[in-house]
Amino acid sequence: MIGAGVEVERLVKNFGGLRALDGVTLRVEPGERRAIIGPNGAGKTTLFNIITGLLPPTEGRILLEGRDITGLPPHRRAQLGLGRTFQITNLFPKLSVRDNVLLAVQAADPARFTLHRPVEAYPHLFREAEALMERWGLRDRAAAPVRFLSHGEQRQVELLLALAVRPKALLLDEPAAGLSPAETAALAEIIRGLPRQTTILLIEHDMDVAFALADRVSVLHYGGVVAEGTPDAVRRDPQVGAIYLGTAAPHF
Amino acid sequence: MRPARLVGIFAALFILAAPAFLSTYYLGLLTKMLIFALFAMSLDLLLGYTGLPSLGHVAYFGTGAYTVGLLSLRVVKTFWINALAGLAAPTLVALGFNLLTIRARGSYFLMITLALAQVLWGIAFGWRSFTGGDDGLPGIARPMLGGWSMAGEVPFHYFAVVVFGVCLWLLSVVVRSPLGRALVGIRESETRMRVLGYNVWAYQYVASILAGFFAGVAGVLFVYYNGYVGPAYLSVVVSGQALLMVILGGAGTLVGPALGAAIIVLLENFLSAYTERWLTTLGIIYVVVTLYAPRGVLGILRDRLGGGRRAAT
Questions:
Q1: Is the Cβ pair A86, B191 closer than 8 Å?
Q2: For residue range A25-37, what is the model confidence (pLDDT) as tens digits?
Q3: Does domain A6-86+167-245 sit in CATH 3.90.1010.10?
Q4: Inside any domain, residue B1
Q5: Rounded to a whole number, what is the distance in Å from the CA of B299 to chain A's nearest CA?
Q6: Which of A240, B12, B35, B145 has the most Cβ atoms closer than 10 angstroms to its Cβ?
């Protein structure tokens, strides 16, 4: 049996006395685009950190395309095709855009452990990096250290690095965080244009973006999934309106 | 041609031609600068490139020096055997120590590297019958190489130049290699490297072993240069000096720490004629550099001359 794209089973995470995740179960089909919404502190980023292996779960299992990856370190999960972006921009600030992209391209290349030849001996890495920057409209900024980029450009590089490793499943943690409405719209277009076979989990505060991009939506509240369904169904769910958007939300 | 490159070529010519116009004393001082430059560059691989601040780097330097000293005084005088053992021993120490150190970060890394190095210092200081204790190991003779005696300052200078040159070339290849680029990535963001698929631990382990090996090379050169090794060459003071050389010169540049080493060796030599307060002086230098030149002397030079590349980018 082919497994789900990404599956988590009864995931529990305790931070001392605080239960951040309380038995989260999600099944995201291959190629599905799933938005995960919920108020601040619902456990969304914790969930991502556990799926990518940056945090160990207290209990539960994580499966990537049917394979149990619960015990694997982050880099093994990445090599198996799990990519992610960070809510708080996490790049190589002193390095140029080109060097940022090169590190991402190199991550999936057998040359990544080579120490006896300069990186220039692998022109295919540079070609791939140039092609990626070209496609993403960052070619003009290739030589600029990313810390000198605008916030919007940095968010773009953030997404580019995650895509450079050609993930089968991609976890996007508030990709539009801090972007202007125009930038958000542009980014949403980019996400919409990603390969359809890529499984996407998307944490997003902007409801319009989340509901427009997602095939299905899961609502996380106090560490548990309280609602799940198509964007329309979730939008109409009165419980969701109550806990997430406030009962007084007029458009519900 | 870039001004920075011109300066480099001038420095190389100066080092090569030095025996023609420097007195024996100053030639010896220049050789010492080269040896500590190599030591500082080996630490730069850890501190400047990988972002791991070691306060125990002297462990590998001292292990190399003591291994050669002990073997040549007590076992056999054959240069190649002693030198190879002098390189193997610190590499093995690095293999063992860094299984323990790499899990720690920041000041914890500083502390655990210091503690492990202090263990070696304790052995050198305390095990009198084996290491000579506080007296150390005097009378270590310089080797014969292919019928040429290295005893004089001139042949030994060229010997050190060749070893330094080869190591500089090797290190510069490593830092430009895919692995070297990954080390810089780890320095900049460990979590990003992890989720990209890099085994961060393995890279840091390899970097620490390479750093240990090259520090060992410097230690072997030094013990032949100095003819003596004692517990002082396993002490935290030397580790601290090496850190200062890297920061003063400009971390993450290889050439900067070499420059920093030259400055510190030179200063120590001149100031020791006037004051006993060498450690105080080092402290003042450290404060001044971190406040006014956080990118080090090389950073200042590159700003003035222009055309240079930024540190480890």
A1: yes
A2: 999 999 999 999 8
A3: no
A4: no
A5: 14
A6: B35
| Chain A residues whose beta carbon lies within 8 Å of the beta carbon of residue B207 | none
Mean pLDDT of chain B: 91
Residues A201 and A225: beta-carbon distance below 8 Å: no
Which tens digit of pLDDT belongs to each residue from A136-174? 888 999 999 999 999 989 999 999 999 998 999 999 999
Q: How far, in Å, CA of A115 to CA of B181, rounded?
A: 9
Interface residue B266 vs chain A (CB under 8 A): no
Count contacts between A and B (CB, < 8 Å): 107
Identify whether B310 is part of a domain.
Answer: no
**Touching check for B198 and chain A: CB below 8 Å?**
yes
CB within 8 Å: B174 and A115: yes
Indicate whether this model's pTM tops 0.95. no
